[in-house]
Amino acid sequence: MNLGATFSMLRPVNCAMIGFAVIIGYFVSRPSAVSPFAIALGYVTGFAVCAFSMVVNDYYDIEVDRVNQPSRPLPSGRVSKGGAVGVAIATLAIGIAAAFLTLNLVAVVIAASYALLAWLYDYRVKAYGLVGNLIVASSLAIPFIYGGALSRGNVFGSLLLFMASTSLLAGVGREVVKAMADVPGDKKRGIRSLAAVHGLRSASLVGAVFFLAAVVTSLLPLALLRVNLFYEFGVVLPDLAFVYLALSILRHADAEGALKVKRSALMGMFLGLIVFIGGAF
Asked: Do both 203 and 99 map to the same domain?
């Protein structure tokens, strides 16, 4: 097996970000005591389960990638299908084992659910439009929840649930808009995205609603929690970004506009992450 190709198939940068999200969730939930061992295990679980999801995605998309991205490890033959299955099993085992070592049943259930959702998405649900978008977006929220479960901190009295909700809603908005640029290919593959089934204008409206819903969940802590000045003033930046994304996709409900919003959405989500982290201290 080509080790370099296998490593690239894992998308290590993406996996590292998911592991980092677990750590953020751990601290945002304000644990009464910090356990470096639990943090390390949480990072391993986030990284490994994400790696599993990446390999599974490539496995089920191999025929599509033979046409669209033939240089990828599987369609190019640098990694065999059997090899990919072996890597998927290994990464899943590592992730779940690390969760078990935390001796935290809730964490184990969350990690296993995350892996199951990733598999279901690629195996079946990808073709079902908004349901598939929700599952993909959940991968942005679940790591924070997992970190909170590991910390045994004050999940409901902290910013954690609002962070997860905002990430989920913004992620759904991005996925709905992203599909607007993929309509021709999605129709050939039988993927019933909102844009493919109901048209670009309807998809742009739904995407905008989710972006604006993310603004609402980011503002709720101002009314429901005691937050610091960093959060009170800083939340304006990601919220302006999300409002801009909503207006932008409504004004330019086409493939080109969707690609611009897709790229810009990551910046809005990153700003939101920084604000939530700063607000946790």
From this structure: no
Whole-angstrom distance, CA of residue 120 vs CA of residue 94: 20
d(C-alpha 118, C-alpha 126), whole Å: 10
Q: What is the value of pTM for the model shown?
A: 0.86
pLDDT, tens only, 161-190: 999 999 999 999 999 998 898 777 666 667
Distance CA 89, CA 220 (A): 40
User: Do 144 and 163 meet the contact criterion of CB atoms below 8 Å apart?
Assistant: yes
Determine, yes or no, domain membership for 278: yes
User: Which among 213, 203, 53, 206 has a CA at the least distance from the CA of 140?
Assistant: 53
Dump pLDDT digits (tens) for 128-165.
888 889 998 998 899 999 999 999 877 777 789 999 99
Please report whether residue 134 resides in a domain.
no
CA dihedral 64, 119, 146, 21 (to 10 degrees): -10
- Residue 36 has a CB neighbour count (10 Å cut-off) of 7
Each residue's pLDDT tens digit, 80-89:
999 999 999 9
